[in-house]
């Protein structure tokens, strides 16, 4: 299983644990999960911060290679990527193959990852970061699976 799919399911689990409790309602499953795993808001925040730091490190490591791997001027142009890509994969990065557009996607992803680390609209930010990272990894499948 790809790491970002695992990340998605872990994120769903974290989002489920962060659901607010309402008086009078019995969240048996949530109570049982909290009893087994000892989920706490501080633990969830620590997980979110650690995950965001890990993703920021990956973005920083990939930033110099944006023209090489993500643009149409590089090793794996968008038209070639579409031929080898699974039909169920989505890739927002294939909207435009220019280097400037790819750097814009990286800047958006970097900003959203910073928002995730800071805890700004965590549920929405987690979903958007997951979509953009999945898109980024789908365009360089051949590099990741070499």
Describe the structure concisely.
68% of the residues lie in helices and 0% in strands.
Structure, described:
The chain is an all-alpha fold and 146 residues long. The protein has one domain (3-144). Helix content is 68%, strand content 0%. α1 (3-17) runs antiparallel to α7, α3 (41-62) runs antiparallel to α6 (99-118) and α6 (99-118) packs antiparallel against α7. It starts with a helix and ends with a helix. The model has no long low-confidence stretch (mean pLDDT 79).
- Assembly form of the protein: single chain
Which series of helices and strands comes N to C?
A: HHHHHHHH
Query: What is the arithmetic mean of pLDDT?
Result: 79
- Form type: elongated
Number of helices: 8
Uncertain spans, ≥5 residues at pLDDT below 50?
A: none
What is Rg? 18 Å
Report the span from N to C terminus.
Answer: 16 Å
Q: Got a strand count? A: 0
Beta-strand portion reads: under 5%
Q: Specify the structural class.
A: mainly alpha
Main beta sheet, described?
none
Number of domains: 1
Question: Helix fraction?
Answer: 55-70%
Strand and helix map with partners:
Blueprint: H1 3-17, H2 28-37, H3 41-62, H4 66-69, H5 78-84, H6 99-118, H7 122-139, H8 141-144
Helix pairs in contact: 1-7, 3-6, 6-7
